[in-house]
User: Fold this.
Amino acid sequence: MKIMLKTNKFFGMFDAVLKEIYKAARFTVRMKRFGETGEYIRSMRELLQKADGRDRKILEICAMSFEDNDEEAFAGKSKNVIEWASDLIRDSAEKVRYERT
Assistant:
């Protein structure tokens, strides 16, 4: 049975939670960059210019509106951040494993 989020009276809360998740992801991109380069970038505009790949996509989505997402937009944004976080965790685990050998 497919759940229709739009019919849920709490749907707006899902948008707010997703926005906060992206806010945390944006901070993580910033710290990841700092860890890799030693450069702390305060400006989101500059960080966006220097980011690439999935990190850049996260920052681009952060700049989008999170209000009144339809189900497709909500699902797409959710999927993107989940896949990005999963890749980040996997890559970090591989790096730690490599450094231990």
